[in-house]
């Protein structure tokens, strides 16, 4: 299986409008592959400007926020490509599209890295941050999964939230729980009680 890095990808339209979305970048040798499903503003933007930037957010609320409709996060200009990156991130990498494998469902854009930079010291891993990322991905697949599977997985990831989350991770988790609860037609309280100590 290929290595996949969970990032936040930004692209620009020809008019300069930014689209920001969490994406798993697929490592392929020295390159990284971006594979969005159609339809996607990312695909439209890459047709107009064949560049993208991947940021590693230092705050998981960015990922949780984007998948729950909160898209207003600070960005700054990229260094080498016409694009934007997250202002608050551990680091970022800038890519130009080297080749495209067209597909009716999921084209694959092979990106050649032209610049990468670290911005914030990385001291250690946090289980709650990983749990938020997993829950965020889960929340984008609610149309594909059975409700009980969703609740079971949320309950499992909630253990890490209870044990290791700080305020930012708890807020991010609450956003995702609210989204899942609404999608499954459950009350917020019922969902929040799943997997949690009394």
TrEMBL record:
Pfam families in the cross-refs: DUF447_C, DUF447_N
SUPFAM superfamilies: FMN-binding split barrel
Domain DUF447: 6-119, 126-177
Top-level taxon of origin: Bacteria
InterPro entries found in the cross-reference section: DUF447_C, DUF447_N, Split_barrel_FMN-bd
Name by which UniProt lists this protein: DUF447 family protein
Organism: Methylorubrum suomiense
